[in-house]
Structures are given as structure tokens and as C-alpha cells.
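[worker-b] picked up task from shared queue
[worker-b] task type: protein-ligand structure
[worker-b] ligand name resolved to glutathione; SMILES cross-checked against name lookup, match
[worker-b] sequence length check passed
[worker-b] input payload:
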Amino acid sequence: MPPANKGFHLYGISGAGSLIVEFLLTLADQPYDRSFPTKEERQLPSFKSIAPTGQIPVLITPEGHHLSESLAITHYLLARFPETKLIAPIGEQSHGACLQWLSYLATTLYPAFQRYYQTSSFDGDQDALRQSGWNDRLRCYDLIENSGEGFLSGDEISAADLYLYMLLRWDQDVDATLARHPRLKQIYDAVENLPAVQQVLANQPPKH
Ligand SMILES: N[C@@H](CCC(=O)N[C@@H](CS)C(=O)NCC(=O)O)C(=O)O
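[worker-b] inference finished, payload out:
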């Protein structure tokens, strides 16, 4: 376990769902430490006591509290660091739009990638699951592409765009995807050009 009361600590996997947490902490100018537990370490009772699914991301707060699930951690950090302006204030249309798209991405596009990359954690025909994940990601892209213009929640970049960027990076066919979806490309490029995003990506350890 990381020491308590020493800032944030993040459990992650290089380039995986912990990226959104790193983006948000970096944009909030919050120092944090990281651990990258192996598959075996993620199955240990000590890890499962803070992450019941044995998955990352898991965030330990400076107060020593733990929370898992990327969507929950995103909400938590947006509420804790409103100065990042990565979600509009409550009462504005953009606030609801940001929540809407975060929820959509976490419950549709993320699970599509899970079916594709983590197929064995689902019951059912493995080939069919993998294929459905691959196909469903395209349905998500088309839906986003055709649902409006500009960033997901309005004129300003928001946490929803950061989350979408993380997911798009997992697409083995991202160049073809972006070539067919100009709105997605615009969002992808804008997020990728953020210095904080570049910093986080440059600091990802080699994948094992
Ligand atoms: N619903 C979870 C999904 C987490 C998840 O799928 N994490 C993956 C990495 S992106 C993971 O830990 N994979 C390793 C494993 O399942 O053993 C969330 O949004 O945080």
C-alpha cells in the first residue's frame, strides 16, 4: 500500500484506463505517484480490497480514501478541482452535455474495447464477443460524429473529450477511423496537442 496522506496515488496500466486520471490530475496541477501492478498483483486480496474487480484505474486520495471505476474517478476529480474548467458550471447546458457524453463513453465505447481486448473476462462465444466489440466501436464513432459539431459538450474542451481521446488511442485502426470521422479527428488532435496530455504520454512506462 502507498503511504497515506502524501498526495494522490494512482494504480494504473501503461496507456490504459488510468490515462484519464493522469490527464485530469496533471491539468489540475496535482502531484501524484503511480504504481503499475502486474496481472498477478491485481489478483491479490490486498489489491482487490481497494479494487473489487481487480482492474485499474484505482485512485488513493491524499486522505487515504480509495476509489475505482474511471467514470467515478473522473466525476470525483472534476468536483474536487473545478478550477480546471474541464466541466462547465452546474446550470449550463455544457455541464449536462459533458456528463451525458462521459456516461455514454464509459458505458458503450469502453465496454466495446473491453469485449475486444479483454474478451476472456466475458461469458459467451469469444469470437462473437470480440467481433461485436470491434463492430460496436464503429457504431459509437458514427453516433458521436453525427450528433453535433465541435467538442462533445460545446465550444470548450471538456473531460468528455479527454475521455474520448483515451479510448480512441486504443483503436488499432485509429488513423482510418479519424480519416472517416472529421469531428473525431478534430477532437483527437485538439486533446493530443494539450501540453499536459503530451507530458502524461511521454511518462508512460514501457508496456509489459
Ligand atoms: N469499468 C472500469 C473498467 C476498467 C478496465 O477495464 N480496466 C482495464 C484496463 S483499461 C484493466 O484493468 N484490465 C486488466 C484486467 O482486467 O486484468 C472502469 O471504467 O474503470
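[worker-b] attaching auto-annotations
[worker-b] The pocket of glutathione is lined by residues 13, 16-17, 39, 42, 54-57, 69-71, 106, 110, 114, 118, 121 (CB under 6 Å).
[worker-b] releasing lock
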